TrEMBL record:
It comes from the Archaea. Catalyzes the reversible reaction in which hydroxymethyl group from 5,10-methylenetetrahydrofolate is transferred onto alpha-ketoisovalerate to form ketopantoate. Pfam families: Pantoate_transf. Its main location: cytoplasm. Keywords: Coenzyme A biosynthesis, Cytoplasm, Magnesium, Metal-binding, Transferase. One of its GO terms (cellular component) is cytoplasm. Its cofactor is Mg(2+). This is 3-methyl-2-oxobutanoate hydroxymethyltransferase.
Length: 270
């Protein structure tokens, strides 16, 4: 299993591969593909739980899904994504919630949507033995404050602030940094400046690694973000299977003889 130390040492050398998963069979598939990191993202809110955003996702939901993923994953590093307001309010509560992901759910690390309010918290968590993945640029938990899922770091001032926060989180002990929906040249510059690996999503080709949401990557999402690419058409495959099932039941071709068992002894009775 790649440890956070091994992930950290990949900066500037081998690309880091990361994808989300929210359940055991998906985690097994993702792992079979050789993924370094499985993120149990709070994107489960949209992708799996039917919410309109990630905001309603609870600590219990992330812990439950992280448990499913961690029980299935043998090789990949499992990172639990801390949901909206579960961290950064009170330190004791933040430590308790993050600690649950390791103690109870079996995660190897947590990810925090980062900002000025997570620098000290990151240091505290790392001191306590809870590895932290930082996340800057577009932080979807702030959608109401940002006014949409818009590209971040587009002005000189905003770009400088993201770079400063990236350095601060590296200094605080984060083992890696997700950069979401920022200009490719800013992501490349931050990647150059940091010793820890950057993992991009909508952040261009020059990060140390890439992350996508499972449903976007396999072609299951109805509304993938503009920066995602589907590497397959799982939606069509599944639809084909489901149409086949409904059609077979309706036409009476399933179950066939080979799917049925006749008990000879009952033949006289019925
Ligand atoms: O929740 C999530 O899936 C994420 C990734 C897109 C980085 O935060
Ligand atoms: Na997330």
């Amino acid at each position: 299993m790649p440890s956070v130390t091994e992930i950290r040492s990949k900066a500037g050398s081998e690309p880091v591969t990361m994808l989300t998963a929210y359940d055991a069979p998906t985690a097994r598939l993702v792992e079979e593909a050789g993924m370094d990191i499985i993120l149990v993202g709070d994107s489960m809110g949209n992708a799996a739980l039917g919410y309109e955003s990630t905001l309603p996702v609870t600590v219990d939901e992330v812990a439950s899904h992280t448990g499913a993923v961690a029980r299935a994953a043998e090789e990949a590093l499992v990172v639990a994504d801390m949901p909206f307001l579960s961290f950064g309010v009170e330190t004791a509560e933040s430590v308790h919630n993050c600690g649950r992901m390791l103690k109870e759910a079996g995660a190897d690390a947590v990810k925090l949507e980062s900002g000025p309010h997570t620098v000290d918290l990151t240091e505290r968590l790392v001191q306590l033995g809870i590895p932290v993945m930082a996340h800057l640029g577009l932080t979807p938990q702030r959608v109401n404050e940002l006014g949409g899922y818009t590209r971040q770091g587009t002005t000189e001032e905003d770009a400088a602030e993201i770079l400063d926060l990236a350095r601060a989180h590296e200094d605080a002990g984060a083992f890696s940094l997700v950069l979401e929906h920022v200009p490719a040249n800013l992501a490349a510059h931050i990647t150059d400046e940091l010793d820890i690996p950057t993992i991009g999503i909508g952040a261009g080709p020059d990060c140390d690694g890439q992350v996508l949401v499972f449903h976007d990557a396999v072609g299951l999402s109805e509304n993938p973000p503009p920066f995602a690419t589907a590497f397959g058409n799982a939606r069509e495959e599944l639809q084909h299977a489901l149409d086949g099932y409904v059609g077979a039941v309706e036409s009476g071709t399933f179950p066939a003889e080979e799917h049925s068992h006749v008990e000879e002894d009952l033949d006289e009775l019925y």
